[in-house]
Amino acid sequence: MDIGTDTSPVLAAGTATALTPPADLTVDQAALNIFDPAWHHDTFPNYQVLREAGPFAPGPLGLRLVTRYREVEAILQDSAWSHAEEGEIMHPDSDGSDLPTSFLWMEPPDHTRIRRLVGKAFSARRIEGLRARVTEVAGGLVDAAIAAGEADLVEAIAYPLPLTMIAELMGVPAADHAAVRSMSFGLARGLDPDILLSQAEIDLRRDSAAAFREYFTDLVARRRADPADDLVSALALAEAEGDRLTSDEMLATLVVLLVAGHETTVSLISSTFLMLMRNPDQYAALRADPDLAAPAVDELMRYCTPSHLTTRVATRDVEVLGERFTAGDGVIILLASANRDAELYADPERLDLARYAGGGAVPRHLAFGRGHHYCIGAPMVRLEMELLLRTLALRAPRLTPLVDPPPYRPNLVVRGIAELPVRIDS
């Protein structure tokens, strides 16, 4: 199987067409469809075809697709599988300077060393201390959208909430938020396989990475001269000590934390709004019981998985639930597919905000990953989503989509809605 350069347009506003796979859809075609932006608004029928064919399916770039929950979980938790090769798989012609991914594409001991330095900023206690501030920001954004009467919820809420919070945690001044968002845009698209990118998009990734390095070099210098209680200051101190963090590692870590710290949450928030509008019974349940907000986050992570896929490469011969792999074999792990696996979840295609509320034995979703690559920002995502959902429940606005399906970004790895115009009635 091969992937050519994709020329399919993003669905335009006003196209309410729903793609339904034909009855004779083959596994090979379903595997190609999941990389096609024309399917981004609903690629789950393709995942269903792949899961029904088995836990492993032939995929692009000489890799196998991992489609089911048990196999995905097994690989993510097994140290025999490495994430360090993703750059070589997705971006074979890059020298790495335009992909500042830091510990995301590292394995122990370097992964452990850098993650430990960063982890203090994302401790449960530190994040819980942000509850009042997240409530303030979420409330202000929702109130402004209600007052406007109509709004693009991507611009009005989905972007500013997580960007504000990760920027404040890191110490990025408010005056710089628009600039760092612009830089993040080029890097987020640039994480997709190079074979799917235009030369202009590859150039934008390079330029964005260079701009980020220049920006954080300057900000670190300012924080060394005038330290603050933020992550930039903490990492600048660690880099100055020399034996724990190099200058290049620090800059790459700051970039990846800022980009990963808001881009995937933007996708989750946007999808959440759309799913609440498409499932009014669930929105009514949330409005009736605002305490449903906390457990609802896990169901939304399962149902609206913001990062659909990741990669792993076997570092030695290994067996995964009966399937044999040799050292050097690579796989594409379909997280969003695994989160809809009927072997693990009852009625997996149904959004049920109370799924995790009853204390029963519901399997954990895989949207945050597993093992030592488990999402370091998970506590922040949970807090932002919980308080946004609670704000919606208490303000109880009526939301009506003006376009359905909305247009989607072409991004594959960090995919999401481009615009979500909505009428809002208080």
UniProtKB/TrEMBL annotation:
CDD domains linked: CYP164-like
GO molecular function, one term: heme binding
Keyword set, alphabetical order: Heme, Iron, Metal-binding, Monooxygenase, Oxidoreductase
Family: Belongs to the cytochrome P450 family.
Coiled-coil region: none
Protein name, as recorded: Cytochrome P450
Superkingdom of this protein's organism: Bacteria
Pfam families assigned to the protein according to its UniProt record, in alphabetical order: p450
InterPro entries: Cyt_P450, Cyt_P450_B, Cyt_P450_CS, Cyt_P450_sf
Source species: Frankia torreyi
Keyword Methyltransferase annotated: no
Signal peptide per UniProt: none
